[in-house]
Design brief:
The complex is a heterodimer of chains A (168) and B (807). Chain A is α+β, with helices and mostly antiparallel strands and 168 residues long. Chain A has two domains: 77 residues, Beta-grasp domain (Ubiquitin-like (UB roll)); 77 residues, Orthogonal Bundle (DNA polymerase, domain 1). Helix content of chain A is 33%, strand content 15%. In chain A, strands 2-1-5-3-4 form a five-stranded mixed beta sheet, sandwiched between helices. The longest helix of chain A has 17 residues. The radius of gyration of chain A is 17 Å and the shape is globular. Chain A starts with a strand and ends in an 11-residue tail after the last helix. Chain B is α+β, with helices and mostly antiparallel strands and 807 residues long. Helix content of chain B is 26%, strand content 23%. In chain B, α14 links the parallel β21 and β22. In chain B, α17 packs across α18. Classes of the chains: A alpha+beta (168), B alpha+beta (807). The interface between A and B is large, with 51 and 54 residues.
Chain lengths: 168, 807
């Protein structure tokens, strides 16, 4: 299959790669861009290990053809750690949310995207959001601890909108 | 979270003394004198701390095998059998070999030497030779310039099969058959014309009398589907035959040492010309503890091409490699006297081993002997058979051999309680083994045992007394208990080597390198070793660097299976650190003039015990100790003490220590659909001392989640020997919705021989959840479940049968 040129912004860096049309986003990130933090657990959309952010939304790398991402802005787990570790990453490590670590990038990226939309999810909302990610080690308990801690931390850090004062 | 501390070995055993030998020369506590570092307060031990490699994992920096790339690397794919049982009439690889970009093709005849994890059943080859014995068995393999070419080339290989009668039901494998239809030339000696891999018969005590005199004799036949480990990282290996004529195999192995041995056999190379490098392991649970055909295949292709070979499997192939829990049919009867004391057990297990031996001899024993706890059992009969069949091989999986029989026993315990009018928890309390005892026949040496405290605590937390038998129809609560080994006391390969050896190296930079071959598989093995060393030397964790990857660098350790790392490798690490500590104490003595034996190691200082103002820093002591000597080096080791007794198979189940668990589960059953929704789990586990409570909780929560999968949804389904659900859509691992809240109770019984008092916590915590679920279903809707998993259709059928038959 003839390759086509794919231009994307990955982790704030412009990239240009020649890609065969049958390659998935996971393939290109891992094999062409050496971003191996994104894992392939099933390659059929059932485990969530390859979750990355595409234009602000969580997407499964294995179910996304790379050429669909022409011009897209992509963030992978490596992109969260460019200067300091992201609070989600630190929380996953410190709360025991990562054991074997293979699913971790997927959980971190999914949680990262969840927090764009809702900075303060309830436990029930977290369950729903993370239901597409499979973890065989933790029983999810320490993962909830991690995402809830990180969400709190991010809310505390977030710039506070000035509350309008009522003029009397 | 409550941490129940039990009283260690000080409590006397009178409350349960029923002739269990506890005194005189039978006394169990013949342990080593406690060392200085066994006693609290601790600096590092008992701290909740992140795993040592966690930051690499959360940032994506951690390297798993499939993440690796070498210059000139080729990609391999395996051609797998489409037939269940067949003769290979012809293999034609010429079309594949002629394809552009194909560099090598290998078949079974290229590596005829047999291997297997157990020396008693070396019955595997790298690829099938002359005959295939399951659908999915490797038949040939290709190395090519790209994965796409390799995949295409695999399909260009022509194989002609002549199908043979398949053995798909374990009962068929019991029958006499012809040599042509035997799956292996070596079968159990007592059944030379069958497909019976291993048969075990044990009888101790007055079993017949026990049943004759019993007041209650609950019994049942329980069926278990096979299940798979379901680790998230598919199998992947990378092999390189380098210019020095050595083979280097990168593999996510739980036991690099066994792979090392098997490679030597298959490749016909001395072990020193092989370097097995464990990469990060994306989940093991027993499923990465056999030496594997794909490891051999990658090495063969590397030898043929002299290029690095990467072989990554897809998810379906990973399921086909299997080695998961045996599909089993277990028939058990228990005998109880009028007081609810267990007086006998009669059990019969038929387990489906699938295509090869794997750990199966051990599994056959474990299915019986691991019923000799956590209850005192004065009469015991067990007939176990493991058969070969034309299915992907069963092997070791978390809780190896103990999980299915545990479900049977715990269900029958519950039935007895109902029959005798006792609370099921009370019935269990009446039967628990005490601490510091030997079991009557197998002489399992129970040292510390906190199960009683554990069960009391989960009863209290769950409000058991106000719930059991008292909730509305559809809602129920159930209990399950269990115990497990802390490392198998006898090695698979008989030799005089220690089971664990740890090397330490400290040079003038003050960094402490720990060399071990205990495999970090996500359970926290590296962290435990680092903690043991840091505690003994009184230093911070950041000084400790664990190198536990390669056989070239690490001393032999039997790896991460049978829940052995904390106990055995932890003790070896402590032993090595204590040698360094003696050197540093001598140096501190030289610097301060105080006697060497009176120094404490704490807060990166070496402090004189009687005069705390007299102290030197760790670095000062280190540099003094290094004078005229260089780096400090120490080797520590662990060897289990002599245990057990002498009869055939008496080694199975022996361990220097045992963990204990008591679980309670509350759930809801929808009587219209049979759907079971667990609501909350209270889980008490006696892990001796929790070296890192964060990791202990993680192990238990993970065990519960995995056990719930087996209890409710997970099953490997076949049609005509073909696996139907080798993917995560159809093989149903519980999602967050099926995973209830869990409350973990860590019971610290402080084991006399474990490192700082620790025992296992990675496997024993799985078994009790399944009967807790089953017993809660009974409490909810009044039906006993004899088939696991307890899927909605099975639960519904049981409810309807009960309505129809009125029983």
């Amino acid at each position: 299959m003839p390759k086509q040129i794919l231009k994307m912004t990955v982790n704030s860096r412009a990239v240009e790669v020649a890609v065969a049309p049958n390659k998935t986003l996971s393939n290109v990130l891992r094999d062409e861009l050496n971003l191996t933090g994104t894992k392939i657990g099933c390659d059929m959309g059932t485990c969530g290990c390859c979750t990355v952010e595409v234009n602000g939304k969580a997407r499964l790398g294995c179910l996304t053809l790379a050429l669909e991402c022409q011009g897209a802005k992509i963030t992978t787990v490596e992109g969260l750690n460019q200067t300091t570790m992201h609070p989600l990453q630190r929380a996953f490590a410190e709360c025991g949310g990562s054991q074997c670590g293979y699913c971790t990038a997927g959980f971190v990226m999914k949680s990262y995207c969840v927090l764009h939309e809702n900075p303060n999810p309830t436990r029930e909302q977290w369950k729903e959001e993370l239901a597409g990610n499979l973890c065989r080690c933790t029983g999810f308990v320490k993962i909830y601890d991690a995402v809830e801690r990180a969400a709190n931390e991010l809310r505390e850090k977030a710039p506070v909108k000035p509350t309008p004062v009522e003029v009397k | 979270m409550p941490i129940v501390r039990t009283s260690g070995l000080t409590r006397n055993n009178q409350q349960l003394n029923r002739g269990i030998p506890t005194g005189g020369d039978e006394r169990a506590a013949d342990s080593k004198a406690p060392t200085l570092t066994q006693e609290p307060p601790f600096n590092i031990i008992g701290q909740r701390m992140p795993l040592k490699d966690a930051f690499k994992k959360v940032t994506g920096e951690g390297v798993y095998t499939d993440d690796m790339k070498f210059p000139g690397m080729l990609y391999a794919r395996i051609l797998r059998s489409t037939e269940v049982h067949a003769k290979i009439k012809r293999i034609d690889t010429s079309k594949a070999e002629a394809m552009p970009g194909v560099r090598a093709v290998v078949t079974g005849k290229d590596a005829p030497n047999k291997f297997g994890v157990l020396p008693v059943s070396n019955d595997e080859t790298a690829m099938a030779i002359d005959k295939v014995i399951y659908a999915g068995e490797p038949v040939a393999a290709v190395a090519a310039d790209s994965e796409d070419i390799a995949a295409a080339a695999v399909w260009a290989i022509e194989v002609e099969y002549e199908p043979l009668q398949a053995f798909l039901k374990p009962k068929d494998s019991l029958k006499e058959t012809t040599p042509e239809l035997q799956l292996h030339d070596k079968v159990d000696k007592a059944f030379p014309k069958s497909n019976i891999h291993k048969a075990v018969d044990q009888e101790f005590g007055e079993v017949t009398t026990a049943f004759k005199e019993a007041r209650s004799t609950p019994n049942g036949t329980f069926l278990f589907d096979g299940i798979n480990h379901g680790f998230t990282e598919p199998h992947a290996v990378l092999a390189h035959w380098d210019a020095d004529e050595r083979i280097i195999l990168y593999t996510p192995q739980q036991v690099p040492h066994y792979t090392h041995r098997a490679l030597a056999k298959v490749l016909e190379l001395p072990m020193h010309r092989i370097n097995v490098v464990r990469t990060m392991v994306g989940g093991g649970f027993g499923g990465k503890s056999d030496p594997f055909p794909h490891e051999m295949i990658a090495c063969l292709l590397a030898k043929r091409t002299r290029r690095p070979i990467k072989l990554t499997m897809d998810r379906e192939e990973t399921f086909l490699v299997n080695r998961g829990r045996h599909p089993s049919e277990i028939k058990v009867a228990l005998a109880f006297d009028a007081d609810g004391k267990l007086t006998g057990m009669d059990s019969d297990a038929l387990i489906d081993g699938g295509s090869v031996g794997s750990f199966g001899v051990v599994s056959t024993y474990y299915n019986g002997v691991l019923s000799n706890g956590p209850y005192y059992l004065p009469a015991f009969r067990y007939h176990g058979k493991r058969v070969y069949s034309n299915r992907p091989a069963s092997g070791a999986m978390r809780g190896h051999g103990s999980v299915n029989p545990r479900y049977a026993t715990e269900t029958l315990m519950d039935m007895a309680a109902v029959e005798l009018g006792l609370d099921p928890c009370e019935l269990r309390m009446r039967n628990f083994l005490p601490e510091n005892c030997l079991t009557p026949f197998h002489k399992f040496r129970i040292t510390s045992n906190g199960i009683r405290e554990g069960l009391q605590e989960v009863m209290r937390l769950s409000d058991w007394k106000n719930k059991w038998g008292k909730m509305p129809y559809g809602r129920g609560i159930g209990v399950g208990c269990g115990f497990y080994i802390s490392g198998s006391a006898l090695p698979i390969h008989w030799n005089k080597l220690p089971q664990s050896t740890v090397h330490l190296k400290i040079d003038m930079d003050g960094g402490i390198t720990v060399h071990s071959l205990a495999a970090e598989i996500g359970q926290g093995s590296d962290t435990v070793l680092a903690q043991c060393v840091a505690e003994v030397l009184g230093v911070n964790m950041d000084r400790i660097h664990v190198r536990s990857q390669e056989t070239d660098l690490a001393p032999i350790d039997l790896g991460s299976y049978s829940s052995r790392v904390t106990f055995m490798a932890g003790n070896a690490a402590r032993d090595a650190a204590e040698k360094i500590r003696a050197d540093l104490a001598a140096a501190a003595s030289k610097l301060t003039g105080q006697p060497a034996k009176y120094f404490d190691f704490t807060g990166e200082k070496v402090v004189c015990r009687s005069k705390p103002s007299v102290a030197v820093t760790f670095m000062e002591a280190l540099h003094e100790a290094q004078a005229e000597r260089g780096a400090l080096i120490a080797s520590g080791c662990y060897q289990a003490p002599p245990l057990g007794t002498e009869f055939k198979g008496s080694n199975a189940g022996l361990s220097p220590s045992y963990s204990f668990s008591a679980y309670i589960c509350e759930l809801e059953v929808d009587p219209e659909t049979g759907f079971v929704q667990p609501l909350k789990i209270w889980a008490a586990h006696d892990c001796g001392r929790a070296l890192n409570p964060l990791a202990v909780e993680g192990q238990l929560e993970g065990s519960i989640h995995m056990g719930l999968g087996q209890a409710l949804t997970e099953q490997m389904r076949y049609r005509g020997g073909q696996l139907l659900n080798g993917n995560f859509l159809d093989y149903k691992i519980p999602t967050p919705f099926e995973t209830p809240e869990m409350e973990i109770v860590i019971v610290e019984s402080i084991d006399p021989e474990g490192p700082f008092g620790a025992k296992e916590c990675g496997e024993g915590g799985l078994a009790p959840i399944i009967p807790a679920v089953g017993n809660a279903i009974y409490d909810a809707v009044g039906v006993r479940m004899y088939e696991v998993p307890m899927t909605p259709d099975r639960v519904l059928r049981a409810i309807e049968d009960k309505k129809r038959l009125g029983k």
